[in-house]
Design goal:
Elements: H1 2-19, E1 36-37, E2 48-54, E3 63-71, E4 74-82, E5 90-98, E6 106-109, E7 112-114, E8 117-118, E9 122-126, E10 133-143, E11 148-152, E12 157-160
Antiparallel strand pairs: 1-5, 2-3, 3-4, 4-5, 6-9, 7-8, 7-12, 9-10, 10-11, 10-12
Length: about 170
Amino acid sequence: MNKIFFSIIIFLFGIINLNAQAGKYAGSKKALVGKIYDRDMPGLKQWEALGGSVINELNEPELFLVDIFRRGSTRLIVFTIQEDTAVQEYKIIDVVEVKSVLTTQEIKTGICRLSKKDNSFVVALVKPRNIQYNKAIKAWRLNRDKRRVEIVSAPTVDCLQEAFDE
C-alpha cells in the first residue's frame, strides 16, 4: 500500500513539475528565462532585433511585452514583463526558439486571432500573402496567469496582414 501511495505522489509531482517548466520551447536560450534587465536584453548581442509589441492594455499595473530577434534562420520570441511600470526593470518570463525559418516566413505579434477572436497574447509563424488574415504555420500563446508559453493549434490561429491591399 505504501509503495502505491509513494508512486502516485512521485507521479503527481512529475506532472506538476512538467506543467510549470519555464523555457520549455527556449532551446539553446533557456538560460535567458528569469533574467532581469533595464535596457538591453542580456545574451542577445549577436542577434538582430526585428521588433516587438506590448501585448496587454497600457493601463494595467503590469506590462507584458514580446520581442522578436533573428540570427540566420533562427528566430527568438522573448516574452517579458514589467511588474512595476514606475521602474525601468523587465524580467524575461519565457522564450521560444524557432529554427529553420524561411525567408518567406515571419513571426507576427500583437495582431493574431485565436478561433477568429483577437488575442494579443498569441504569436505565430506565418507566410505572408496579400490576404486580410494569414493562417499560422506554428503558434504559441503566453498564459499570463502561469507566465508560461503554451503551444496553440496552428489551424485555429490567423494573423492580420498589415499591408493588405483589397
